Amino acid sequence: MIFSDTVCQLGEGALWHPEEGALYWFDILGKRLFRHDGSRQRDWRFDEMVSAAGWIDRGRLLIASETRLFVFDTAREEEEDVIALESDRDAFRSNDGRADPWGGFWCSTMRKNEDGAGGAIYRFYKGELRALYEDLSIPNSISFAPGGAYAYFADTPTRKIMRVTLDEDGWPADEPDVFVDLSQESLNPDGSVVDRQGNLWNAQWGAGRVACYNPDGQFMTAIGLAAGQVSCPAFGGPDFATLYVTSAAKNAPEDDQLAGVTFAVPTGFKGQEAHRVAL
């Protein structure tokens, strides 16, 4: 099912706001944020690329951009800077991001031209922005197990989804290990989300599907979508059983007529509520 037929050059950052009952997502290359509550869609344009968000309260988001984290008030259309994010590196931009169970916000950076490493994953928590993993190419799949036992992430070109144990404050407690290795199938892990049962749902760029893996990393099922370049899933809807999935039109094959639209698929599974960002 097509949720929004607006074509995004690089759709990303799907986020269901549990208090508003609405889906937010981005077109990174279009420098736009979208919101759709099932009946009405609106959007906002920015002066730089924006890619990921966490919800603070009704009407306010923490957004990751090329140069900073900032609070955006959607009603007043006002921005308030929070902290710089690689503002001295013009060749880089933000990419994936998600709030953690402690109210922290994890976000990643990468090269705008997608050529080479130098990207990183950060955690913003209690006013501090700390680098967690560095020298990455296209960091993605930031997501969290129920209760916060684990965090997941991927560097897409490695074709591996990693898992790391978190301590009582939500910081990595050990070295990450391989949760799912997709290299044998030549699949590219993009964004991920974890449901209430601890199953990880991964959008696989170029494969036109979101695949589900159980808490042991075993393949369970996959949802096929009518766009190849799927990018980021998020659970939402009244019962959190609908999976919303963004996609990208950039460099899509000519016969990929739905490239860039945003989908909504009933799953039979229930997702977690997106965690609130604490400032």
Description:
By secondary structure, the chain is mainly beta. Helix content is 0%, strand content 53%. The protein has strands at 2-4, 11-17, 22-27, 32-36, 41-45, 50-57, 60-65, 68-73, 78-84, 92-99, 105-111, 119-125, 128-136, 139-144, 150-155, 160-165, 177-181, 188-194, 200-205, 209-213, 219-224, 230-236, 242-247, 262-266. The strands form 6 sheets. Strands 1-24-23-22 form a 4-stranded antiparallel sheet, with no helix packed on it. Strand 6 (50-57) and strand 7 (60-65) form a beta hairpin. The radius of gyration is 17 Å and the shape is globular. The model has no long low-confidence stretch (mean pLDDT 98).
How does the major sheet shape up? 4 strands, antiparallel
- How far the N terminus sits from the C terminus, by CA atoms, comes to 36 Å
Strand ordering within the main sheet: 1-24-23-22
Strand residues, percent? over 45%
Query: In total, how many beta strands?
Result: 24
